[in-house]
Amino acid sequence: MAQVEKIASAKCFQGYVCRYSHVSSSLGNLEAKFSVYWPPTDKVPIERQPVLYWLSGLTCTDENMMMKAGAQRICSQLGLILVCPDTSPRGAGLPGEDDAYDFGTGAGFYVNATTPGYSQYYRMFDYVTKELPQIMQSNFKVDPSKKSIFGHSMGGHGALICALKLPNEYCSVSAFAPISNPMQCDWGKKAFHGYLGEDKESWRQYDATELVQQGHKIAGKILIDQGTEDNFYKQKQLLPENFEKACQSAGQQLELRFQEGYDHSYYFIATFIEDHIRFHAQRQVFVLWLQQLLGEESVFSTTCREQVRNILETNIDSDGWKVFVCGGDGTCNLVVQVLQYFPWKVGVVLVRVSRNLRGL
Ligand SMILES: N[C@@H](CCC(=O)N[C@@H](CSC=O)C(=O)NCC(=O)O)C(=O)O
Question: What's this model's pTM, rounded to 2 decimal places?
Answer without folding.
Answer: 0.83
